[in-house]
């Protein structure tokens, strides 16, 4: 019982508003190594490519990994090893593919779970959240509480992220790169293929690797002159807003969600983000871990990942989930359901079955057509 109360100070109103981790990173090649940020599509006045903000004083900040991307990377922790026992393991079978709820982009609000036998239960769970009871959702999809979710296609219920993590690079110099593809043989010159008669054929030759193809001035990564930093926060003030009806149930719920959040928050961040972007800790700049209070005080915090995991297991058991149960995600998840094509058809036609929001959407579309 003692372990269950070990972090209750963080669950009290007078406790810290948030826990904050700041980590300084460098490319595996060294501080002056080239790293490749995420690229984004053009839109809303953005030309596309790297997200670099440049300021009047000449400085710049480049987004290396967004808050959404970081959340998706961290969440998958709960589908592996001993962490899998901390949450319900629910799989949706869609054709030949089996998708864990932890992999769904919109979590409990994703189309793949909305169009399955989980639909009614999750709708009621989201409605319960809107009425101030997060326990039903925590019983099915607790990571939707930890990493945030929005049931935008049905009930409109929103859950803010309790954990936010972002990686940025400072004072960046943008590079370009060029390449030249050389085919294994001179297919046209040697008469192995006919000379392309039009642009369509020429493009087809290039696409299939039969001709020389230059690639000039494409994205070549950046060099971060003023370093790379990961900023992560666990919003305890938001966690303390979670309720489950009566006071005792609320405490059990908050401990469970806190256990998951602390486990994710303290887990060593993956160094490999994408091709050309593998980051490690900068040992010359130690990690900062702080408790931040509403009055602005910042106090040093200490918490080992192993202690967070032990607490999470105890809290999960108290919440009614056996953290040591047998799980084989390839054969024996906690629950497996089929993707329902009929529900998907209804969803596409303007609603999610018989849900209130779905009915309103269909009525709105009908009125628009009448007009």
Topology record:
Layout: E1 18-27, E2 39-40, E3 49-50, E4 52-54, E5 60-65, H1 67-75, E6 90-94, E7 97-100, H2 111-114, H3 119-130, H4 135-140, H5 143-146, E8 149-150, E9 158-159, E10 163-170, E11 172-181, H6 199-208, E12 213-224, E13 228-234, H7 236-239, H8 247-266, E14 272-274, E15 277-281, E16 288-292, E17 298-300, H9 305-318, E18 335-338, H10 341-348, H11 356-370
Parallel strand pairs: 6-18
Antiparallel strand pairs: 1-13, 1-15, 1-16, 2-3, 4-5, 5-10, 6-7, 8-9, 10-13, 11-12, 14-15, 16-17
Structure in words:
With 371 residues, this protein is of the alpha+beta class. It folds into 2 domains: 3-169 and 225-339, no CATH class; 174-221, no CATH class. The chain has helices spanning 67-75, 111-114, 119-130, 135-140, 143-146, 199-208, 236-239, 247-266, 305-318, 341-348, 356-370, and strands spanning 18-27, 39-40, 49-50, 52-54, 60-65, 90-94, 97-100, 149-150, 158-159, 163-170, 172-181, 213-224, 228-234, 272-274, 277-281, 288-292, 298-300, 335-338. Strands 1, 4, 5, 10, 13, 14, 15, 16 and 17 form a 9-stranded antiparallel beta sheet that branches. Helix 8 packs antiparallel against helix 9 (305-318). The longest helix has 20 residues, at 247-266. It is globular, with a radius of gyration of 25 Å. The N and C termini lie far apart (64 Å). Mean pLDDT is 91; it is low at 352-356 and 358-371.
């Amino acid at each position: 019982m003692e372990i269950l109360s070990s972090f209750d100070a963080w669950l009290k109103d007078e406790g810290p508003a948030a826990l904050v981790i700041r980590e300084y990173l460098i490319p595996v090649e060294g501080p002056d190594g080239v790293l490749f940020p995420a690229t984004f599509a053009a839109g809303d006045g953005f030309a596309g490519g790297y997200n670099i903000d440049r300021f009047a004083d000449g400085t710049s900040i480049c987004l290396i990994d967004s808050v959404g991307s970081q959340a998706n990377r961290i969440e998958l922790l709960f589908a592996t090893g001993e962490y899998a026992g901390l949450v319900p393991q629910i799989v949706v079978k869609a054709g030949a593919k089996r998708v864990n709820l932890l992999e769904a982009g919109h979590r409990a609000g994703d189309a793949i779970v909305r169009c399955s036998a989980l639909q009614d239960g999750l709708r009621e769970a989201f409605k319960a959240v809107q009425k101030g009871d997060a326990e039903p959702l925590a019983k099915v999809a607790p990571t939707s509480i930890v990493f945030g979710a929005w049931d935008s296609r049905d009930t409109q219920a929103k859950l803010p992220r309790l954990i936010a993590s972002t990686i940025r690079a400072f004072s960046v110099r943008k590079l370009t790169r060029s390449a030249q593809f050389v085919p294994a043989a001179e297919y046209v010159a040697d008469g192995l293929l006919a000379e392309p008669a039009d642009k369509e054929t020429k493009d087809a030759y290039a696409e299939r690797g039969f001709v020389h193809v230059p690639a000039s001035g494409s994205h070549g990564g950046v060099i971060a002159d003023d370093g790379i930093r990961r900023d992560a926060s666990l919003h305890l003030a938001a966690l303390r807003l979670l309720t489950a009806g009566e006071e005792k149930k609320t405490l059990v719920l908050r401990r469970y969600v806190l256990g998951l959040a602390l486990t994710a928050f303290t887990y060593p961040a993956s160094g490999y983000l994408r091709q050309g972007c593998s980051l490690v800790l900068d040992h010359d700049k130690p990690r900062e871990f702080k408790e931040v209070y509403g009055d602005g005080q910042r106090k040093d915090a200490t918490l080992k990942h192993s202690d967070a995991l032990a607490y999470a297991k105890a809290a999960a058991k108290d919440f009614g989930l056996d953290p040591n149960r047998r799980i084989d995600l390839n054969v024996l998840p906690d629950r497996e359901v089929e993707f329902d094509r009929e529900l998907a058809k209804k969803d596409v036609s303007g609603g999610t079955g018989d849900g209130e929001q779905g009915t309103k959407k269909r009525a709105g579309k009908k009125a628009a057509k009448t007009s």
